[in-house]
Amino acid sequence: MGQFKANQLVDRLAAAAKAREATIARLRARPAANDPTVLARQAARRAVVQAREVRVAEREAAREAAEARRAAEAAAALERQAAEVARLAAERAEQQAQLAAAQKAARDARFAARKAKARR
Question: Can you give the pLDDT at residue 10?
Answer without folding.
Answer: 84
